[in-house]
Write a structure and sequence with these properties.
Blueprint lengths: L2 H29 L32 H11 L14 H11 L10 H11 L4
């Protein structure tokens, strides 16, 4: 028996085995379920007074402070100050539309305020 050819075939078989094991390991690694990456936070668009370092305190529904925050976050009033009066029926209609809450909710009701809170203060 020719030992030179035997050794060459042995090396070739060894290389093929290593190659197969390597491919199997890579295939296994890419097909394994990886833990979900932490969601990336959206850039902060709130003012310093609205910092999320502590839980946000939501002003009373319909209060001037609540109306200002909702107006600013939903961009109801433009940068030049043009828009409906805060708290008016027209303003509440704009809030309903821009927040995407159900138009069947009657503006100014507790259900309406809770729906707006869910969109403005606790977005998904």
């Amino acid at each position: 028996m020719d030992t030179k050819n035997y050794r060459a075939r042995g090396h070739r078989a060894g290389h093929l085995l290593l190659l197969a094991l390597g491919l199997a390991a890579m295939s296994s690694a890419c097909c394994q379920r990886q833990p979900a990456a932490a969601p990336v936070a959206a850039p902060a668009t709130h003012h310093a007074a609205e910092s999320h370092a502590e839980p946000e305190v939501i002003p009373p529904h319909g209060s001037p402070a609540w109306n200002r925050i909702v107006d600013r976050r939903l961009h109801i009033t433009d940068s030049a100050g043009h828009g409906p009066d805060l708290g008016s029926d027209e303003w509440m209609g704009a809030v309903t539309k821009k927040s995407g809450i159900s138009p069947t909710l009657l503006p100014g009701t507790e259900a309406w305020y809770r729906a707006v809170d869910a969109k403005v203060f606790r977005p998904l």
